[in-house]
From TrEMBL:
Catalytic activity, as annotated: Release of an N-terminal amino acid, Xaa-|-Yaa- from a peptide, amide or arylamide. Xaa is preferably Ala, but may be most amino acids including Pro (slow action). When a terminal hydrophobic residue is followed by a prolyl residue, the two may be released as an intact Xaa-Pro dipeptide
GO MF term list: alanyl aminopeptidase activity; metallopeptidase activity; zinc ion binding
Keyword Zinc listed: yes
Residues covered by the Peptidase M1 alanyl aminopeptidase C-terminal domain: 555-879
Top enzyme category: hydrolase
Domain named Peptidase M1 alanyl aminopeptidase Ig-like fold: residues: 446-550
Residue ranges of every copy of the Peptidase M1 membrane alanine aminopeptidase domain listed in the record: 228-438
Organism of provenance: Magnetococcus marinus (strain ATCC BAA-1437 / JCM 17883 / MC-1)
CDD domains: M1_APN
Keywords annotated in UniProt: Aminopeptidase, Hydrolase, Metal-binding, Metalloprotease, Protease, Zinc
UniProt EC number: 3.4.11.2
Protein name as catalogued: Aminopeptidase N
Co-factor requirement: Zn(2+)
InterPro entries: Aminopeptidase_N-like_N, Aminopeptidase_N-like_N_sf, PepN_Ig-like_sf, Peptidase_M1, Peptidase_M1_dom, Peptidase_M1_pepN, Peptidase_M1_pepN_C, Peptidase_M1_pepN_C_sf
Length: 879
């Protein structure tokens, strides 16, 4: 087996040389771009005087390497992607010329071409594919960049900072020079050159700076950029009012590119975005995507402070910027859309992605201690669990103190490459609290599990709540210490109202809701003056990223589902009730070989919710959605996706037929003939209406089919087209192929609309047919292996959203994914490695599936010349 280099946090050493200034000149040419770098180095004050200069460089050959002002050529050697040079002095300027081929760069890392335009992605380590440089985030330099290109083909030339010069070079080429006054690490460098259309607007900051906002995209999609522009202005305003932080350059540029590995990138002053998170129009983006655009625009904008002005010392600190920035974009979305809906969506994402990761072979702490390929660590743990950890700090300290901690962080570390430890120190200094135990959240992997037990004593009016915590072992971490866990809770009286809380021996009345701080393996809290037997409402608002068992019976869960005044917990109680009901039914099916009837208790509780007239529609839609097959499977020791899917469908059919009139009336009430307009309220109504239709089509009789067809044919927006088309496809409606054709003609002019045309098909067609369909779609003229969005739409949706097809008992679904990964790995390792995550749960599957899954992984491991990216995920999965 191959030996791969492992990077360890413990091995961190400061750089021997810092860079004061770098001047880059690009002569852009698709197959032979010339890059000249003039880098002014200065020895780090603490570095030994004989320390060599070490530069990163991958897939590069220097055409010229010289010390400016020196006759003789410097001594250097190149080995394993490193150039080592004997420095001539304490401080000197190196001139380095390299030539690179952006048109051959299919990994989309470094300088590449997307849709005829040049663009870059340098995080985490793409800059080293452009020139020799200390490509590490703790080396921060001022950049001056000149771009030279054919004027006709590339009229727009962009880089970070302010444009300081332009020139017509007389030979058909032109140039533009940019200067970024803020020192930055190389991963924040960006350039773009192409024939792009521009949408421009302005924003005046609280400090009075007039900022020009520029959104660039291909000409045919520039009219789809208005929503993103509005989102940007909202984000700029929100950050000023919530954090007192303003934008710091005269121009803020966003460019939408079609071929992009991730969501977006926060390059200083020049964000580069996957078109999926910029473009929005009724026939192109769903309501959920309109929301995602706002969230990602805000996320990248917020990085300007948490990421750019204060960056990371090394990649083990990645969550310092990502967790914090996700927390901030979640708060933004909560404010502009809906706090409760946002919270539920955040938790769903965490549970569907991060919990499985934390319970699997690639589990790692929020601050990892080692990696082979850093690109594999842009994970749900770093991002989403990282955000939860920040949120717990806000919960423990309270917003005003948390905000003071943030102010201190900015004051102390502006312009620096910082660490998680320094961030926590700011929170400690602002609050005067000891966060020693809290730090465990950064270094211990795994999802802690809480078990609650309670007893009510009517005579003494006391309520005793006992809780224990354990954290399961994860790779390399067999035993864990107890964590510092905030438990937000209330005790509800029979009307669902929180009773005021007072702890025995506690001095003060705590109010109706309190945050208990669990710091030990076990703790008991005794409340006094509890006049009526309460129903506990625990972990309100999902106060910690943990699993818990509240030990509530079905009756209590149904009560909370209908009555808890914490919206998250209302939703959560319904989910627990559904999971428990479905797991019971799974057990009965295994015993008796046939599907049992839907328990009355669940049907009654469901009926109460569907009749609920108070909740906002978006919340009601979430409340009436059953937990995903994946989430239910995670609750089983050995998961059988086919059985879970069957039982879940059975429950859906049962409630659909039993509550048909109620679903019909929900549909009617939220149906609208108005032209499409995105707003949170309209989106909520559409979500509820489409949820009702989705249930109704579980029993596709003529009236319901007619409703769905009417919606499909009359709607003016893709949310409603898909709301009808998806379930029609699932129920095998005879009109399917005609609808597929019609939808294609509506989508064909937009790559992003087409992505949904692809993904809906492979998701909704069940059984063996789905595999042949997925394979056929990869041959479709609109499909391309070079566009990650397309690969995700077909292969990702097939593997992640069609459990019965992917987990086909003959292993054919696994075989398909394995072959795709093996082929893609040469072309785009980051994308290939991402796709491997669908295999990582293999040990938790029933034996007849875990065996073929393991075999597929083994075949991958045996693939010659596997990238570090794929190798790391595959080898860890099999270990
Ligand atoms: N910093 C970017 C963001 O969170 C993600 C870039 C990740 N790219 C990568 N190739 N690993 O918005
Ligand atoms: Zn980010």
């Amino acid at each position: 087996m191959s030996q791969r280099k492992v990077h360890n946090l413990k091995a961190y050493r400061p750089p021997h040389f810092l860079v004061e200034q770098v001047t880059l000149t690009f002569e852009l040419d698709p197959s032979a771009t010339r890059v000249e770098a003039l880098t002014h180095f200065k020895r780090h004050p603490d570095a030994p005087t004989d320390a060599p200069l070490q530069l990163h460089g991958e897939e590069l050959q220097p055409e010229l390497l010289e010390i400016v002002g020196q006759q003789e050529r410097p001594h250097y050697h190149i080995e394993n992607d490193r150039l080592t040079l004997t420095p001539p002095a304490e401080s000197f300027t190196l001139r380095c010329v390299t030539r690179i081929a952006p048109d051959k760069n299919s990994a989309l890392d470094g300088l590449y071409i997307s849709g005829g335009m040049f663009c870059t992605q340098c995080e985490a380590e793409g800059f080293r594919k452009i020139t020799y440089y200390p490509d590490r985030p703790d080396v921060m330099a001022k950049f001056r960049v000149t771009l030279i290109a054919e004027a006709q083909q590339y009229p727009i030339l962009l880089s970070n900072g302010d444009k300081v010069a332009t020139a017509d070079l007389g030979d058909g080429r032109h140039s533009a020079t940019y200067e970024d006054p803020y020192p930055k690490p190389s991963y924040l460098f960006a350039l773009v050159a192409g024939d792009l259309a521009l949408l421009e607007d302005h924003y005046t900051t609280a400090e009075g700076r007039k900022v020009t906002l520029q959104l660039y995209s291909e000409h045919h999609s520039i009219d789809q950029c208005g929503h993103a522009m509005q989102a940007l202005k909202k984000a700029m305003q929100w950050e000023e009012s919530r954090y007192g932080l303003s934008y710091d350059l005269n121009t803020y540029m966003i460019v939408a590119v079609g071929n992009f590995n991730m969501g977006a990138m926060e390059n200083k002053g020049l964000n580069i975005f996957n078109t999926k998170y910029v473009l929005a129009a009724p026939h192109v983006a769903t309501d959920a995507e309109y929301e995602a655009v706002e969230g990602v625009i805000a996320h990248e904008y917020f990085h300007n402070w948490t990421g750019n002005r204060i960056t990371c010392r090394d990649w083990f600190q990645l969550s310092l910027k990502e967790g914090l920035t996700v927390y901030r974009d979640q708060s933004f979305s909560a404010d502009i859309v809906s706090g409760s809906v946002q919270r539920i969506q955040d938790v769903r994402l965490l549970r569907n992605h991060q919990f499985p990761e934390d319970a699997g072979p690639t589990a790692h702490p929020v601050q990892p201690e080692s990696y082979i390929e850093i690109n594999n660590f842009y994970t749900s743990t770093i991002y989403n669990k990282g955000a939860e950890v920040i949120r717990m700090l806000e919960t423990l300290l309270g917003w005003p103190i948390f905000r003071q901690g943030m102010d201190l962080y900015v004051a102390r570390h502006d312009g620096q490459a910082a660490t998680v430890e320094q961030f926590i120190c700011c929170m400690e200094d602002a609050s005067g609290r000891d966060l020693g135990q809290f730090r465990l959240w950064y270094v211990q992997a795994g999802t802690p599990e809480l078990t609650f037990n309670s007893l009510y004593y009517p005579e003494s009016q006391r309520y005793v709540l006992n809780v224990t915590q354990v954290c399961p072992p994860t790779p390399g971490q067999l035993s864990k210490a107890p964590m510092h866990i905030p438990i937000r809770m209330a005790l509800l009286d029979p009307d669902g109202q929180p009773q005021s809380l007072k702890l025995v021996d506690g001095e003060q009345v705590l109010g109706a809701e309190t945050v208990l701080e669990l710091t030990t393996g076990e703790a008991t809290y005794t409340f006094e003056g509890v006049s009526k037997a309460p129903t506990p409402s625990l972990m309100r608002g999902f106060s910690a990223p943990v699993k818990w068992d509240a030990a509530l019976d079905r009756e209590a869960l149904a009560f909370l589902w209908a009555n808890d005044n914490d919206p998250f917990n209302r939703w959560e109680s319904g989910q627990i009730l559904a999971v428990e009901t479905i797991l019971d039914m799974v057990g009965l099916t295994q015993q008796n070989g046939e599907l049992p009837d839907l328990p009355e208790s669940f049907a009654h509780a469901f009926e109460t919710i569907i009749k609920d007239g108070k909740s906002e529609p978006a919340l009601l839609a979430l409340s009436l959605s059953l937990p995903t097959t994946g989430y239910i499977m995670d609750r089983m020791d050995k998961a059988d996706p086919h059985l879970v899917y069957r039982v879940r469908q059975h429950v859906r059919q049962a409630v659909a037929s039993r509550f048909r009139p109620l679903f019909l009336s929900l549909y009617g009430r939220h149906y609208s003939d108005e032209p499409y307009h995105y707003s949170p309220a309209n989106a909520g109504a559409r979500a509820l209406k489409n949820l009702a239709l989705d249930y109704l089509l579980e029993n596709p009789e003529p009236t319901v089919l007619a409703l769905a067809h009417k919606q499909f044919h009359q709607a003016d927006n893709i949310t409603d087209w898909l709301g009808a088309y998806g379930p029609l496809l699932r129920c095998g409606s005879p009109s399917s192929s005609e609808l597929t054709h019609i939808l294609y003609t509506r989508c064909k002019d937009s790559a992003n609309a087409l992505d949904k045309w692809f993904s809906t098909q492979v998701t909704m067609v069940a059984g063996p047919e789905a595999l042949s369909l997925a394979k056929a779609l990869t041959q479709h003229p609109d499909f391309s292996w070079s566009t990650p969005n397309k690969v995700r739409a077909v292969v990702g949706s097939f593997s992640g959203a069609n459990p019965t097809a992917f987990h086909a008992i003959d292993g054919s679904g696994y075989g398909f994914l394995q072959e795709v990964i093996a082929q893609l790995d040469e072309k785009n390792p980051q994308l290939a490695a991402r796709l491997c995550t669908y295999f990582t749960r293999w040990r938790r599957m029933v034996p007849e599936l875990s065996q073929p899954m393991q075999n597929a992984l083994q075949r991958l491991l045996d693939t010659p010349n596997l990238s570090n990216d794929t190798y790391e995920i595959v080898s860890k999965s099999l270990a």
